[in-house]
Design goal:
heterotrimer, A alpha/beta, B mainly alpha, C mainly alpha, B: mainly alpha, about 80% helix, about 0% strand, globular, C: mainly alpha, 11 helices, 2 strands
Chain lengths: ~400, ~300, ~290
């Protein structure tokens, strides 16, 4: 929110058609830029997990007196832009941060598409890009292309297999049969996950009895749920986005869908999900997860509530905060804003975060939650890569 | 060619030459603004080619643009990029022909409404096809094209659009369009096939918009249908063209440049209220410059001349 | 059977939205592209009163309706009047109003984001299932449907059996002639525009009980309302009701039988058929 007058001057001179702009000055602050949606289709998600954590982190670092560098503590000056969920606007804003505002670091964007669209800019200017909300199956190719990109949430395959593993175990324990109803949102994320999941489910011996997609922004999901119900599934899996996660759950309650496992992807872990549906979502599975019992996580959630006025969600909130902690420790470890050194530091070191120790192997972190479940009004991680203390999965027992 | 035309041509070539030098500045920010401006210049000029003389407001730019983007995204791993560009152009023209056949014989309102939701419908169809046939193919466009290349490609396309516009203005088609724009009944009585003329122009406009989408696909790397078919794009194109004025070929250009810079200033200074400010700017343009900047200029120019004589 | 009932329930709510646009376009001659935003505003109001004060969305209609009426009256007098005065003919007014209301739509989205944020909003109201002939339907849909039916019935009675209603219909048929018989066309147009906006907002309040919405979703509803109005015939109340039911049925049938991803394509398909064969609307008389 803190706009520099220099920037306004820059904008004014741009209008005048002047090419000579420059606000470069070795200030007493570390300038950090952030571009993410505040409006548009992805804003509903980014205002839950992305922006609050950036604000929380900046608040905390500045409350401590700033980042500890070789030449003393320096406060963070945050410059933020809205990309309107529009990649064209995003690229311009990222370029503006890099060349006009000359920020020292940029917080990685929100969403897979935006992380990839802006990766060339980060690479060109040498910014480390710790991508949180990016899930892709092309990670090896991307990390080779962009030496400063880091992935923390894993691949589509790990997400789909985690769901498959949970269902397989329930079937092996004799708790449910092998019929899966699968639906997906017909957008990049949903299509990719459904495509990955199909062979995985089949290989695990499941029968996909219902397999449909619906476009992003479908308000009326009742035909989907009726179709799924008619196929008499044992488990319901939806690779869904926030609005349809809510919509599908609503419909499932209305139709009283009788399944042993009910999985919806993004936004199942949102606090609003628990608030809207209350007790009826006991046992619902969703993407992500968290271990809310550790002291570090408890302190983080309390601070999140106090500083931003909103509760943290059960997945990406913590991951976003972790990525900022990694950035913070790397900057302090190097002791300066030398981006190349900071990027190298991230590759070489292990970081102490609220999710435990995090390190990167070939620019990928292998510690993250994959599946969580609502149990007693709290969203717990039940499956993960490398995270300890996963809760045992419980069966979904009706909607009352 | 008259001497005046030659003079215009020379000026145009010099301007294009100067514009082509931008990437050598090496400043990524200016290049990305340049790409944005070039994109809007091409889109709104080609929009005005059709909507200027006919007064049919097309809100379908995003549909054509998205179509081009999705074609490139789907084929990039198996088909050469140049071939994909050709396919996009043909597909854009074909779709425009279909839409034109269905709606252009009717009054303008039907056309507006039809084009308003077209992008959304094409998005649904494309997503559905992708979901049921293509799978995750068509999401990643990993090429070695940089913003510099995209900028030059768009500039070349802009030159092409201006040439076509100039040619249409001199051709029988352009003459027919002017009569249709003034009075469609008169035009029909002169023996002009009004529907065919309109459809042909709409095809040019659709083809160019699809090409722009195809050229820009490498810029995004990861293509999400809901972003490729952003309805906002259609409206931005309309408002920029109207701001400039649609009576002259270079009218939209006069609208695009200040509007893009205005947007840039808004985005940089009011990051949280962009949409609100955009909406108000839109209203102001409709109320204060109904005939576009060019119309305003010509008005005052005419007044000045009258006063002088 | 299931398709039939779901389709009719959906069509009922569509009727209300389309009726609002029909009054605005058919009578006041304003093609209001900000119609969907008005709907979202109504939905926001219901959401807000429900979460903050536990007021039932059905009750909140009682204050949403007059508020929206007032807001739309002001919009018509302040924002649209200059355009109406400026326009030399119907064609120019159409172009100008399309552009102006589109800009207005954006401004509304901006205002709503500034006041409520860009989050999705959703609440659980009467979400229980009800059994009808062996199939389960959400109670909130049925309530919304009957509310829409009652409102439409009142509107219909008002239009056909009252003096101001008759004046509104007269302006819809022919503004010049209506002026000649002593009807204050501008007053009636303003009334129709405000009433239309109010209906749309009420439709939004009802819809919010069973759909998840966010600030930028309005344009989708504008689209559907436009298709219904064109299909039913501009200014034709009965046509709109039939068209809304057809659209609701078609969407449900396609979603259930073919693929939920193709509902808009289905709406478009119907739209094209109407344009090709009955461009004057389902019940309109051909103009020669």
């Amino acid at each position: 929110m803190k706009r520099r007058t220099a920037l306004k001057l820059a904008a004014a001179s741009l209008v005048a058609g002047s090419l000579a702009i420059g606000t470069a000055q070795a200030g007493d602050t570390v300038k950090i830029g952030a571009v993410a949606p505040k409006t548009g289709p992805l804003a509903g998600g980014s205002t839950v997990t992305h922006w609050p954590n950036i604000h929380l982190w900046v608040h905390e670092v500045n409350a401590r007196g700033g980042l500890k560098l070789k030449d003393g503590r320096k406060k963070i000056e945050l410059i933020e832009y809205d990309d309107q969920t529009n990649p064209g606007v995003h690229i311009k804003a990222a370029q503006r941060l890099a060349t006009q505002d000359k920020v020292d670091f940029i917080v990685a964007p929100y969403g897979t598409g935006f992380n990839l669209a802006s990766a060339p800019i980060y690479a060109k200017h040498g910014y480390p890009q710790i991508a949180v909300s990016a899930i892709s199956d092309k990670i090896p190719e991307l990390t080779k292309r962009y030496p400063g990109i880091f992935f923390t949430l894993g691949s589509t395959t790990s997400f789909a297999s985690a769901v498959s593993d949970i269902l397989s175990k329930m079937r092996a324990d004799g708790k449910m049969g092998g019929r899966i109803a699968m639906v997906n949102v017909a957008d990049a994320f949903g299509i990719e996950l459904a495509e990955t999941a199909r062979p995985i489910f089949k290989k695990a011996g499941f029968e996909i009895v219902y397999d449909k997609s619906y476009p992003l922004g479908t308000q009326d999901l009742s035909p989907i749920m009726k179709g799924a119900k008619a196929s008499k599934p044992d488990a319901f899996v939806a690779w869904s986005y926030p609005p349809d996660t809510f919509g599908l759950t609503k419909q499932a309650i209305t139709q009283n869908l009788d399944v042993k496992a009910f999985y919806t992807a993004v936004a199942t872990c949102f606090p609003a999900y628990g608030k809207v549906f209350g007790k009826s979502i006991e046992g619902n599975l969703g993407a992500g997860g968290v271990d809310p019992t550790t002291p570090a996580m408890k302190a983080y959630r309390k601070a999140h509530m106090e500083v931003t006025g909103k509760p943290a969600d059960g997945w990406a909130s913590a991951n976003t905060y972790v990525s900022l902690q990694v950035l913070e420790q790397a900057i302090e470890g190097v002791g300066s804003v030398d981006r190349k050194a900071v990027t190298q530091y991230i590759k070489d070191n292990t970081f102490k975060t609220i999710m435990g120790d995090i390190n990167f192997v070939d620019q990928v972190s292998h510690r993250f939650w994959t599946v969580g479940q609502w149990q007693g009004g709290e969203f717990y991680g039940v499956a993960s890569k490398g995270m300890p203390n996963a809760k045992p999965v419980i069966l979904k027992k009706g909607w009352k | 060619m008259t001497s005046r035309e030659i003079r215009t041509l020379v000026i145009a070539v010099i301007l294009f030459g100067l514009a082509a030098l931008l990437p050598f500045s090496g400043n990524g920010y200016f290049i990305s603004i340049g790409v944005t401006i070039a994109m809007y210049v091409v889109l709104s000029t080609s929009w005005a080619l059709f909507s200027g003389p006919t007064h049919y407001i097309s809100l379908a730019t995003a549909a054509f643009y998205g179509l081009g983007t999705m074609i490139v995204a789907t084929g990039i791993e198996t088909v050469p990029y140049v071939v994909l560009l050709l396919i996009s152009a043909v597909a854009g023209a074909l779709m425009a022909a279909l839409v034109g056949l269905a709606t252009l014989r009717l009054s303008g309102v039907y056309f507006v409404i039809f084009t308003l939701g077209l992008a959304e419908m094409i998005r649904q169809l494309v997503s559905w096809l992708q979901n049921n046939l293509g799978g995750s193919r068509g999401l990643y466009v990993l090429t070695d094209l940089t913003e510099d290349h995209i900028y030059w490609e768009l500039l070349a396309l802009a030159a092409f659009v201006f040439l076509i516009g100039w040619w249409i203005g001199r051709s029988r088609l352009g003459f027919a369009m002017r009569i249709i724009g003034n009075d469609e009944t008169v035009a029909a009585h002169c023996g002009i096939n009004t529907a065919r003329s309109k459809i042909m122009l709409f095809m040019v406009s659709g083809m160019v918009a699809a090409l722009v989408g195809a050229l820009l696909a490498p810029r995004w790397t990861y293509i999400e249908p809901n972003i490729a078919f952003s309805p906002l794009l259609s409206f931005e194109v309309v408002i920029m063209a109207l701001l400039g004025g649609t009576k002259r070929l270079w009218g939209p250009l006069v609208g695009v440049v200040p509007f893009t810079i205005l947007l840039e200033v808004i985005e940089a200074n009011y990051p949280s209220q962009t949409i609100l400010v955009l909406g108000i700017a839109f209203l102001l343009i409709v109320y204060l410059v109904p005939h576009g900047v060019v119309g305003r200029l010509e008005q005052s120019f005419a007044k000045f001349r009258r006063g002088g004589n | 059977m299931d398709i039939l009932i779901t389709g009719i329930l959906l069509g009922g709510t569509y009727t209300l939205i389309a009726m609002g646009l029909n009054l605005q376009y058919g009578v006041a001659r304003i093609m209001n592209l900000a119609n969907g935003e008005m709907l979202v505003a109504g939905a926001f109001a219901a959401f807000w009163t429900y979460t903050a004060g536990q007021v039932s969305p059905i009750l909140s209609i009682l204050f949403v309706a007059p508020l929206a009426f007032l807001a739309n009256w002001i919009i018509y007098r302040v924002i649209l009047m200059p355009l109406i005065k400026r326009a030399k003919n119907q064609g120019q007014l159409e172009v100008d109003s399309i552009l102006a209301t589109f800009g207005m739509g954006f401004a509304f989205v901006g205002i709503m984001i500034a006041t409520f944020g860009a989050d999705y909003f959703s609440y659980d109201y009467l979400g229980d299932g009800v059994q009808i002939i062996g199939n389960t339907f959400a109670l909130n849909r049925i309530v919304a449907f009957f509310a829409a039916v009652i409102i439409c019935a009142i509107l219909y009675a008002w239009l056909y059996w009252s003096r101001p209603g008759t004046a509104v219909r007269a302006v819809a048929v022919n503004p010049q002639a209506a002026g000649l018989v002593g009807i204050n066309v501008r007053r009636v147009s303003a009334l129709a525009f405000a009433l239309g906006g109010s209906l749309t907002a009420v439709g939004g309040s009802l819809i919010s009980t069973f759909l998840t919405l966010d600030a930028s979703v309005g344009v989708l509803f504008t689209m559907k309302a436009l298709i219904i109005v064109i299909m039913g015939g501009v200014g034709d109340v009965r046509g709109v009701i039939v068209a809304a039911l057809i659209l609701g049925l078609a969407e449900t049938a396609v979603a259930t039988l073919i693929d939920p991803g193709l509902t808009l394509a289905a709406a478009y398909f119907i739209f094209i058929l109407v344009l090709l064969f009955r461009p004057q609307g389902l019940f309109g008389k051909p103009t020669s």
